[in-house]
Automatic annotation (TrEMBL), chains A, B:
PANTHER family recorded: LACI-FAMILY TRANSCRIPTION REGULATOR (PTHR30146:SF144), LACI-RELATED TRANSCRIPTIONAL REPRESSOR (PTHR30146)
InterPro entries referenced in this protein's UniProt entry, alphabetically: HTH_LacI, Lambda_DNA-bd_dom_sf, Peripla_BP_I, SBP_2_dom
Domain HTH lacI-type: 10-64
Organism, as annotated: Paraprevotella clara
The protein's name in its UniProt record: HTH-type transcriptional regulator MalR
GO molecular function, one term: transcription cis-regulatory region binding
Keyword annotations: DNA-binding, Transcription, Transcription regulation
Domain of life of the source: Bacteria
Taxonomic lineage: Bacteria, Pseudomonadati, Bacteroidota, Bacteroidia, Bacteroidales
The keyword Lipid metabolism belongs to this UniProt entry's keyword annotation: no
Pfam hit, one: Peripla_BP_4
Amino acid sequence: MWEVHSSDKIRIKDIAERSGVSVGTVDRVLHNRPNVSGKARAKVEAVLKEINYQPNMYASALAYNRKYTFCCLLPDHDRNAYWTNVEKGLQQCILNRGDFHLSLITEYYDQFEGSSFAVAAERIWDKKPDGVVIVPQNFDVTQAFCRRLQEQDIPFVFLDSNVPEIEPLAFFGQDSLKSGYFAGRIFMMQAGEHARRILLMKLMSKGRVASRQQEYREVGFREYMTTYYPDCEVVELSLQLDGEDGYESRIRAFLDEHPDVRHCITFCSRAYILGEYFQRNGLKDFHLFGYDMVERNVECLKQGTIDFLIAQHPWKQGYNSVKALFNHIVLKKAVQQCNYMPLELLTAENYIYYTADEK
Amino acid sequence: MWEVHSSDKIRIKDIAERSGVSVGTVDRVLHNRPNVSGKARAKVEAVLKEINYQPNMYASALAYNRKYTFCCLLPDHDRNAYWTNVEKGLQQCILNRGDFHLSLITEYYDQFEGSSFAVAAERIWDKKPDGVVIVPQNFDVTQAFCRRLQEQDIPFVFLDSNVPEIEPLAFFGQDSLKSGYFAGRIFMMQAGEHARRILLMKLMSKGRVASRQQEYREVGFREYMTTYYPDCEVVELSLQLDGEDGYESRIRAFLDEHPDVRHCITFCSRAYILGEYFQRNGLKDFHLFGYDMVERNVECLKQGTIDFLIAQHPWKQGYNSVKALFNHIVLKKAVQQCNYMPLELLTAENYIYYTADEK
């Protein structure tokens, strides 16, 4: 039998007893107040070190009663898209800290337009933020904004994709290289050793994919393929993000041209474009691997036109990003720099137990 | 752009304004105090209903300043086993509620001995617990103890395996039937259509496996096999839990007898018994699927002798079980009855992102 008590935390009284000084002296040392002899201070500090004392920064921060403005810079998006879950997490973290005066202001940018990021960043700058959550765009515009923040000692957190060279306070997102490598392993386990050709679908706009995450996932995936399936050809199908009108004929043309392709993968969150095509056309013999628990992907999982999705806790990424800013700025607590989300593999059998929206 | 504020919670002042009564009247209604006219009470209650008001039970409970004793009834286990993570979660939830006077007392029972459960339960009974977390043993002994608790209105939570007929306050664990079914799907995706015979390893003691969880996982697995692979034979290898001495020769004899078997699965947390055998004997051509992130299993994942593990957040099960008791008993909050853990599929590539010990 063992027992544990909620009072197993250390109290000022205990510190005083251990140091052989009065409670008042301990209190004066803890709050850096005068009228403590050097000897008494040394005794108390030795005990604090011994017990690894964590001061109650929460109470101190409350007493300080300051207002804090946090800002976020997110990609513009539809309702119910991947980013909506990120937003819910960001908001919930603010609402859960009702004892403090926190505000969160969100601005959006176009993922394919560097100047759009700079404009939204300018609007954030004008808010005089105490801290910022950023989904990085391309390196140059992201770095330009972050340098300004750093010059003013304004901490920022990267969400979704990391740019370690810019040295954010923290990063929350998946390890994209590993994620693509892992996707390759599961995907090829299903495709089997005899697959000669597989389809990689990319959604492009202005000649590129939406995010660094997607680029890096592909790098990881291709590394897996080169190592273990050097003879399997990866054929790309590029669709334009601008509209769904042309998808049907582009996909049909691709499949006509590659009648041996039965296994498809994508690193964007819209695997459903292929899944819904298979469904509309009654194609049952195809296997599809994608990313993210967005509504239309989930419907395809249920219908059997998507076999696997990798999910990445968008809600938690949002929640933890704000929490990192709060802990660092308000509570003066140490924050872990690199925070990889789990690589969750979801199928028709287990997706219902995955909670994208956590409480 | 949107903004959210931590003050977006409703205040008593707002309720007063909306109801057209004084703050004092709202306060008297909220605390069920006298001297409120029927008309004023009705107005306030209408507003409370409209805004779905949640009273601050935390502050009320603190003011009440009572002591609470929670107890747990867990299977006896080695250090660093699966249950160790459950215990860490149970303890952390108590330590995180340092504002309250909570104690947690844990008693252990032998999973293969009904009378051992009854003896440990008796010891818990003597502590006059306010609430109990129970890992169910067989139906009769579990029910006998729970009936006594129910007669005294002492709430209890089931952890790991559920017995819904006994009607616990809450349950935290995996959906074992679905878990076994899911395991079957991934396992056979790897084994391929041509697998004619696969090995199911069971650890037995006194003629049975350790838990209802393991039994149900097997039911789910066999359902999958019967539906999709009716011609694939499932051959059982039973090992005795009492000691590892005999394992080597039993496994060797089995494999000699079934030279075509290359795919092995187990629903207990000791897949490493087979994994370490493969490693010791330099057998590279075997595939193994198991459960739980215990140390020796993880080592086999790294070495490549286990391909897949299903993990089930033991830390979170422990934490959430105590939290459910706390919310129900201390804060008088509603608690969700059935709480399935995610079915996490882990491989050498993604296990490092799975956090068994959460903070």
